[in-house]
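Hi support team,

I submitted a single chain yesterday and got back a structure, but I'm not sure I'm reading the token output correctly. Could someone confirm the output below corresponds to the sequence I sent? I've pasted both exactly as they appear in my results page.

Thanks,
R.
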Amino acid sequence: TSQDWQRVKEDVEAQIIPRVSGEETYLLVRSQGRINKEKAMRDLAMKRLETGLAKLTSQVAKGRIKEDKKIHLQAGRLLGRYPSVASLYQIDLKIAQDQKKTFVWPRKEDKLRWKQITEGTYLIRTNLSGLELSKLWEMYTQLTEAEAAFRAIKSELMVRPIWHHKEKRVQAHILVAFLGYALWVT
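Hi R., thanks for writing in. Yes, this is the structure output for that exact sequence:
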């Protein structure tokens, strides 16, 4: 419910999801900044896909593309170019009794509505329990900062990707990353 949401940052709110079973705690988080970003990305992809589908519809209607296989290949290429929104459309090639072909692509409004509702929302899973939401959020942000620092350091040292096969090398890697993080923080 809307009362369960707590503001953890200026444009971020979260809630603890009750455990069904197991040792894990879940945080459901939604961020206005992330909502705006995901909406802009979706809108752009939908606009571009719809432009391509409209062009294909016109080509089919004018008889420029006649073979079913070619029509399906063109549609497949378009959907492959915009996979994040491809599932929001029902693509169909209709053939009338006079063999006239019509390419249609109505939106799946229920899927679009679900995408809109879930934009900017994500789930965080942790094995920590019994902590306040604000403390869990603080720990999560520290973790993401540390991970970002490790990525930056490893990129600068050009030591990515790394696959260790021995425990001593894993420990050495963690030590170097931690020292780099400590240096970055100070």
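A quick pointer for reading it: The CA atoms of residues 91 and 124 lie 35 Å apart. Let us know if anything else looks off.

Best,
Support desk
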